[in-house]
Design a protein that fits this description.
By secondary structure, the chain is an alpha/beta fold. It folds into two domains: about 140 residues, NAD(P)-binding Rossmann-like Domain (Rossmann fold, 3-Layer(aba) Sandwich), CATH 3.40.50.720; about 170 residues, Dihydrodipicolinate Reductase, domain 2 (2-Layer Sandwich), CATH 3.30.360.10. It contains nine helices and 14 strands. Strands 7-8-9-6-10-11-12-14-13 form a nine-stranded mixed sheet. Strands 2-1-3-4-5 form a five-stranded parallel sheet, with helices on both faces. Strand 13 and strand 14 form a beta hairpin. The chain is globular. GO terms for molecular function: nucleotide binding. InterPro entries: Gfo/Idh/MocA-like_OxRdtase_N, Gfo/Idh/MocA_Oxidoreductases, GFO_IDH_MocA-like_dom, NAD(P)-bd_dom_sf. Pfam families: GFO_IDH_MocA (PF01408), GFO_IDH_MocA_C3 (PF22725). This is Oxidoreductase-like enzyme, Gfo/Idh/MocA family.
């Protein structure tokens, strides 16, 4: 078992603490939080060991799980990497692309592994869809959330949309060549609702919308490709696959047949995959443990987390342009 510590005991940090404490791949050593009053309260309530000194925690673990506000990601990860500790960093990887690139170089220099917490990669609906998605040419993603003051210190692109940016980049095997975007600040000082259009070198187009001022929650993506349409509902954990094939000469009475203007007939059928329930946060943490133990590449590398941040920053820059 790998010895692990958690940095940050806020809302998400407490979830990570509980899951790591339950995990069979980790031994939870303890946690550090800069708010010592809060930290002592967590220690008393749940029994996790509180380390007043971050350096002392690092000296006792193999892996550090960084679940702090983004502004602290770089400095805390830098200290861990220099101590030879593997790092799991919540998304976004850092505040700037420059910081993220620096972490990549640092991790290589110290032979340390890193993974970024893009949890939707481990969503069972998305996992089930991956084997069905093949060269999509149009993607539409909606990530809508009811207003919550937590997270409004950053643009909605970094708070919500970055989930879909990472998921799309992991599927489209091509570089982004053009970005158009617009954003509106309704309640916060930074945009609360954003739409972005990504054009890839291979011709694929992705249209992303993110909002944190909606009346209902939605986390849904649709992938359109030759003879197929795949819908992934990240919230409800449902994947729907609609495919088309050449219609048989004598279709049965219940067959769904479409005929285009040229007279070509296609049959519509459904190929919905089975969804295997899981705890996505636990999965991302435990697959990182496997990568460390087996010396393999983590599922969401520091490089991938950096590319998602790079595109997110380009979207934010496009607001002004």
């Amino acid at each position: 078992m790998l010895k692990v510590g958690v940095l940050g005991a806020g809302h998400l940090g407490k979830i990570h603490l509980r899951l790591l404490n339950e995990s069979k791949k980790y031994k939870l050593i303890g946690f550090h939080d800069t708010d010592q009053t809060h930290a002592k309260k967590i220690e008393k309530e749940f029994g996790y060991s509180c380390f007043e000194d971050y350096a002392e925690l690092l000296s006792n673990v193999d892996v550090i799980d960084i679940v702090t506000p983004t502004t602290y990601h770089y400095s805390m990860a830098e200290q861990a990497i220099k101590a030879g500790v593997h790092v799991f960093i919540e998304k976004p990887i850092t505040s700037t692309v420059k910081e993220a690139d620096a972490l990549i170089k640092l991790a290589k220099a110290h032979n340390v592994k890193g993974q970024v917490g893009h949890v939707e990669r481990f969503n069972p609906a998305f996992r089930a869809a991956i084997g069905k998605i093949d060269t999509p040419m149009f993607i539409e993603a909606h990530r809508l959330a009811e207003f919550n003051p937590r997270g409004t210190d950053v643009p909605v692109v970094l708070d919500l949309m970055i989930h879909d940016i990472d998921a799309i980049l992991s599927i489209v095997n091509s570089k982004v060549k053009k970005i158009n975007a617009s954003g509106v600040s309704v309640i916060s000082e930074t945009p609360d609702i954003t739409n972005a259009r990504l054009e890839f070198e291979n011709g694929c187009v992705a249209n992303l919308t993110a909002s944190r001022i909606s009346l209902k929650n939605m986390r849904k993506s649709r992938f359109f490709q030759r003879d197929a349409y795949i819908s992934v509902d990240f919230l409800e954990k449902v994947t729907e696959v609609v495919k088309m094939k050449d219609a048989p000469q004598d279709p049965d009475d219940f067959a769904m047949i479409l005929q285009n203007a040229e007279g070509v007939k296609k049959q519509i059928y459904f190929d919905n995959p089975d969804i295997s329930p899981n705890n996505a946060i636990l999965d991302e943490l435990e697959t990182f443990a496997e990568a460390v133990e087996n010396d393999t590449v983590p599922i969401v590398t520091l490089e991938q987390g950096t590319e998602a941040l790079r595109v997110a920053m380009q979207i934010i820059k496009a607001f002004d342009e």
